Structure formats: structure tokens, C-alpha cells
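Give me C-alpha cells for this 226-residue protein.
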Amino acid sequence: MSHPRLKEIATLLNSLDSRDRLLALIELKELPAAEALPFIKQAIEDQNLPVRSLAIRTLAAKPTPESYEILTRLLIEDQDYEVRAGAAGALGYLDDLRALQPLTRAFFEDTAWLVRFSAAVSLGNLRDPRAYDVLVHALDHQEAVIQEAAIAALGEIKALGAIDNLLRFVQSQDWMVRQRLAETLGQLRDPKSISALKYLSKDEHHKVSRAAILALQQLGTLPETE
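Here you go.
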């Protein structure tokens, strides 16, 4: 049986007012994925960027067998870098390891830093150890935000082999990079991680030191008290 609000949602989605179309997408949360898909596909082709972006997020929240193909097409072909970035981010939530290849390709070939950032984050979300090489490569990116994404992703894939690569960020001038490093080291049980976390637990920035202390607690090793 069709959802009783299908006609209302269809009317909103065809409105000339983009706010109505956004509301239609919000209403889709009540529909089964199969019933929501035609509306999502329509919204993905919308001329309004916020509508397209919300449609992409909705597609990731309500995955169907078509989701991977739709998102991959957007990632590779769409002219709008924000749409490509949204597609890259959404692919990380599908739990579909086929996404490793298009995300890796996007990281190396897309010229927009936001797309590369989203690709790195999603490679971590996939938790596929085959992403190791691209994520270690991403540590050398000139954008600190992409370095942060790579650091976090290496923790997600439990990349113990990357610890030496990660430790060079212990004295990064960017406190957010150091914070991300502390959080990641808390997922990588190793004597080098513990040593680095004890050092970071005394960091001058309170968010870094707090993250390091929490990571040590997570590893079952409290920092030494003075």
C-alpha cells in the first residue's frame, strides 16, 4: 500500500518554491526507501543546490540497490564540485566496498579540495584496509583539513602500519591536527601510540590534551601524574 502522503509530497516536490521542495525531501523520511527513491531521483536533478545536496543525503539515509550507481555517477560526472563532494560523502555510508575504487579515483583526480576531503573521510567510513596506501599518501596533502581526514580515516581502518607516518604530526602547528591525531592514536594500540599520547596529554591546547587523555583511557593506559 502506498504511503498516504505521496500526493502531498509529489506536489511539494514540483513546487516552484525551493523551500517546498526541501520540505518534500524532509517528509520522505517517513517513506520506505523503495517508495522514496523516485522522489529522490527527481530532486537530485533539481536546479537548486541545497535541494540536490539534501537529496543526496537522503539517498544515503535510505539506500536501495540503485544508490551506489547514482552516487558514483554524480561523483564522476557532475559539474558542481559541491554535488561531487556530497556524493563522495554519501558513498561512505552505503557500506558497499565497491566504493573504494571511485573514491580513490576521486581523491587523486578531482581538482576540488572539498571532494578530496569527502573522499578521504568516506574511505575511513568504509573501514576497508585496502584504502591504506591512498590515505598515507593523503597525509602529505597541503590542505590541513585533508590531513585531518586522512589521520582520522587511518584510525578507522586500524592502520597500525601507519603509526610512524602519523607520529610526524605530534608537533603540528595546527592544534586541530594534533587533536585528530590523539583521537586516532587511541584506536591504534601500540607502545609508540601510548608514548605519543602521553606527550600530547601535556599539550598546551586543552582540547588536544583532553583528547589524548581520553585516548589513553580508551587504551586502558592513564597518563602519568606529576
